[in-house]
Amino acid sequence: MGSLVLPALAGVGVLAGAATQRATGLGFALVAAPFLVLVLGAKTGVGLANLLSAVLCALVLLRTWRALDWRRLAWLSVPGLAAVPAGAAVVAALPEPVLLVGVGSLAVAAMVLVRFSTRATALRGRSGAVAAGAMSGFMNVTAGLGGPMITVHALAEGWDMRRFVATAQGYLLLVNVVSVAAKGPPDIGPAGLTAATVLVLAGAVAGEWLAARVDPALVRRLMIAVAILGGLAAVLRGALMW
How many domains does the chain have? Predict the structure, then answer.
């Protein structure tokens, strides 16, 4: 029975992460990655988070693509994709605990900036989109945390929730596909991948239900809280592994 506890926790994390991302626009990797890393190890866990996030983004985008902002997507995606090779090289070169603590700290700092600052001017406009995209691409391939910097930029720019959800899916789909290609697919076997995919689908359905019933202001607070918790989880994982 004890041997089932960790896989069950990972399953709950995948289910909750998928629901969170469908309702808020991001959050799958932030919620699911700590559990996946706990069960599979840092590199395999982050790799699986990248792969499942790509699947989830494609599913959500099928429902939200009409609200996608193609110009913003381009400004985020070009620097984000350009940063992926550098992130993959860092993953291969540095110890995992150092990566997790550093990237998690950046994610928390970014969310705290948005939460407690009335003007996150550094990440506004085209230059802000380029900076957010580059940092997000790097963070996504190193620790599965592509969402926080996109959230900082979106909140600084005052995006409406529908446009944010759609554009975030397009961006994260691209960077996760490239991240998986740069590092290779996770080695978890067909059965594990099938089970994880089913949980992603179930979570997306639950998130669809939540998105139609939750107040946008509450969704915004949830989005910030999830991002902060994900960053703290990364720091904690790294500290425990050090």
Answer: 1
